[in-house]
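Appendix C reproduces, verbatim, an entry submitted by the partner laboratory led by Prof. M.T., so that reviewers can inspect both the input and the predicted structure.
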Amino acid sequence: MAFFFEVLIGGLMAGVMYSLVALGFVLIFKASGVFNFAQGAMVLFAGLFFVGFMELGVPMLLALLLTIAVMVLLAGVIERLVLRHLVNQEGIILFMATIGVSFFLDGFGQTIWGSNVRQLDIGIPTDPIFLMDGDILIQSFDLWAALVAGTLLATLVVFQKTRIGRALRAVADDHQAAQSVGIPLNVIWIIVWAIAGLVALVAGVMWGSKLGVQPAIVSLALKALPVLILGGFTSIPGAIIGGLIIGAGEKLAEVYIGPLFGGGIENWFAYVLALGFLLIRPQGLFGEKIIERV
């Protein structure tokens, strides 16, 4: 049982890291109704600038503030050059636009800072913690990641209750209707992309501290997709719950089911689980059920 709980806790902590990426997807989807394929690239982009500033000798706090400024500026550029020209267009057009943004950010970030793996140390303890007389091992870093994700979740839940948060939901439901009641669509998109950029920065710093800042971080966006399917594309708490389910599920499956398939089940278990979930509850655990009347 001690080994089971160790695997379970390790999976839950990994799920928290997935949730940090998934939160950015949820924010963009709630404001535009489209899956933002560029979120993974934004995580890498933010991580590269943060660690790049620190390598230039900039103090960590100032590097953080500079990176925040870069992500806010990025939000304005994306709105001005891309989104402003696609107002009231079909969701698939917006989706294709985010694919273009993704490849641009991936390439532009590596052009400036290079593609080498960069180690990032922000002072988070990495010493192991032993529970139950040493039978269960937990990494200190994972606990800090859970604390960061919980704080971010609470902040976003409070934010969506504000006037701006309600405006985001109105824009997602109908662009034209939102504009007709005086909601400035361009301003709302800048705000939501800026917030998604800040979430990407948090995810980039945490993943960079764990694995190093490297182009492989972009692939984490693919792991966020089953998280969103389980939690719901429109639910911020659902992103956390979905991440915990995916993280714990894949670790337990790798340990207890993997030997039956020769190992490697952790790489595809999340997608199979998401596929099965789509057949049962397509809107996710906390997503909004869409009913169309004809």
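The mean pLDDT is 82. Additional entries are available on request from the coordinating office.
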